[in-house]
Specification:
The protein is an alpha+beta fold. It folds into 2 domains: 95 residues, PH-domain like, CATH 2.30.29; 194 residues, no CATH class. The strands form 2 sheets. A 7-stranded antiparallel sheet has the order 4-3-2-1-7-6-5, with helices on one face. A 3-stranded mixed sheet has the order 8-10-9. It has 14 helices and 10 strands. The protein starts with a helix and ends in a 5-residue tail after the last helix. The protein is rod-shaped and about 125 Å long. Helix 3 runs antiparallel to helix 8 and helix 7 packs across helix 11.
Length: 335
Amino acid sequence: MTALKDYARLETSGLWRASPDAQLKEVWVSFGDATLVISDNTGKPLSHWSLAAVSRLNKSAPALFAPDQDAAETLEIEDEDMIRAIAKVQRAIQKARPKPGLVRWGVLGASTATIAWLAFFWLPGAMIDQAVAVVPDVKRQEIGAALLTRTARIAGQPCSDPFGTVALRRLENAVAPGETLHIMREGLSTTAALPGGHILIGRPVVEDHDDPSVAAGYVVAEMTRARIYDPLRRILEASGPFAAFRLLTTGDLPPDTLDAYAETVLIEDAAPVPTEALLFAFRDRKVPARPYAFAEDVTGEATFELIEADPYEGVAPVIHLTDGEWLSLQSICES
């Protein structure tokens, strides 16, 4: 220890008392290995005091020391250099000592920070992942039906007309078997997906285009989007970890969560779908890509990859709906 080396050769005389009843004895005081060495005039050690434990018992001169607060031994020293040296070495020893309290608080602080980080960043995502993985199809259908009901309060009941409904089911069977298509009366411009296979279609998709392949393309694109971005996951991510926790523990979503997302689903921006995934889906469902691509961007600049790679360009179109069925579907919201 540097401070101890500085005073290794420092020594002075003092008066030592071995016990309260003993007589004072003149001694020599010097530094040992982190100890204060008390010796008689012949150099024989009489006592070793731990410097870290030495206590000064008074503030006046001469300085009165003891090996600890409760010890019977005492030592009087008048030499100011020795008194200052003892104090300086004690401070150096204290600084060099490990501080268990600080270590414990440091470990506790690090643990708390780690737990807080996990709770804030990892746990919400983990709960959502778990909920998405374990919720069965039946529950997804229930959630989707509940959301559809709430959406209808905002956008009106899905359009229904005898002939138009037949045409809608025909389109459903042709390009979206296993899904349920709904034409929304208000509030939706393109498409949206709900859990349980519900695909919502805005009126403009069928009313503003002459080609039924446009509607078919939007349905195929939304189905592809739903496979990439699970609709249940989108609800939980929009609603926060409490909704996921509630779903995991009770099997239901809070009503206010459903109410809030019913408004969101009508206005949220559609998540982008990779071109390769779209082209694969169009090819699989036998739907041309160009009509959808130009409906998305009339200039074709933003969708030129779909246009150029259209799997059915130059091929006789697959007829999903007859002209009469398409006209019926276009007028489904007029009743």
